[in-house]
Amino acid sequence: MAAYLGLCRREILLSWRQGGEIGLALGFFVLAVILFPLGVGPEAEILRRSGAGIIWVAALLAAVLSLDRLFAADHSDGTLDLLVVSAMPLEGVVIAKCFAHWVTSGLPLVVLSPFLAVMLDLDASAVPILVIGLLLGTPALSLLGAVVAALTLGARRPGVLSSLLVLPLYLPVLIFGSGAVEASIAGSARPHLLLLGALSLATLPLAPLATAAALRQALE
User: Fold this and answer.
1) Which helix (H) or strand (E) holds 95?
2) CA angle, 142 as apex, 92 and 207 as ends, to 5°?
3) What pTM did the predictor assign?
4) Tens of pLDDT, residues 95-134
């Protein structure tokens, strides 16, 4: 357990020290939400109706921007080879990396979302549901993104390829996340939130297995 905690701490510290990619993802998230009203107009009713979808789409695209740093740097400097042959199971290494990725990418999006929701004039009763939905759904984004990042490791243009592969996988998270906010206004958001939690719980054991297999294949 100490080795896993040390790996999580290392990944988080490296991400904060190399803060350019984190700042890029967060800056994109904020700017995408801010620019949307300029494109569709400042009508409060339109923004209120589409605000949750805007925030979720921006969060998904921001998550895609940060996928490259999951394994690319460790692959280029040889650290990934050492992790593969270490005593730690590779699946555990993947979980530690995904946790660090979520802490430095997904969690900041959750923290920023209430302020952006207020700016879009989202219904006050729907803001907590938006935050809870992001808190439940963003771990699945990191875990699914890890699978795609491993599959595209060593590709000539991994950013473009990973975007094409990961966005279809993110669609259920987007549908249930934005649907939870709409359902909270009309009635109960509990089914949507339960499905979001189920997606994250399902990807927790399955995604590391697929990611580890893809990493072994990429390093052969």
Assistant:
1) helix 90-101
2) 50
3) 0.87
4) 888 888 888 888 889 999 999 888 888 888 888 999 999 9
